[in-house]
Design a protein that fits this description.
With 132 residues, this protein is an alpha/beta fold. 35% of the residues lie in helices and 19% in strands. The longest helix is centred in the middle third of the chain and has 15 residues. The N and C termini lie far apart (57 Å).
Length: 132
């Protein structure tokens, strides 16, 4: 079936300009037992500390590496609320190096500030990194 007309977005210019820095977090919690029993709470603290303690402009990119449904639901909620700018969900664990490859190839910022999902970020953390 042929299309009728022209795509209304055609010819429009985007005013999208990413922040210079993308803060990227790799998340992995396959279940909520044993070693991963408290991972959802730890990940929550990591993301909350980034949001609360980062003064410089940044885009937040989160890559979920095949986590349990509870973690995915939490991350989707943050994305829907606008706390996460870019959310990438993998159906299965593709390994840390493959996940990092996707993160660094996807991040829109000139600088990528990477973090695992078990790091608490103190006030001024990003500014100190950017100085270096």
């Amino acid at each position: 079936m042929p299309r009728i007309g022209i795509n209304p977005s055609r010819g429009q210019t985007l005013d999208f300009v990413p922040c210079r820095t993308t803060v990227a977090v790799l998340v992995y919690a396959p279940h909520q037992a044993g070693y991963f029993q408290d991972r959802l709470d730890v990940t929550r603290l990591t993301i909350e500390s980034i949001l609360a303690n980062t003064q410089e402009p940044f885009d937040l990119l989160v890559f979920d590496n095949g986590s349990c449904s509870e973690m995915v639901t939490y991350l989707k909620t943050l994305y829907e609320q606008g706390s996460i700018d870019y959310l990438i969900l993998s159906k299965r664990n593709i390994g840390k190096l493959n996940a990092l490859k996707i993160i660094f190839n996807t991040a829109p910022g000139e600088i990528v500030a990477y973090s695992d999902d078990d790091v608490f970020h103190l006030p001024g953390w990003l500014g100190a990194h950017l100085e270096i």
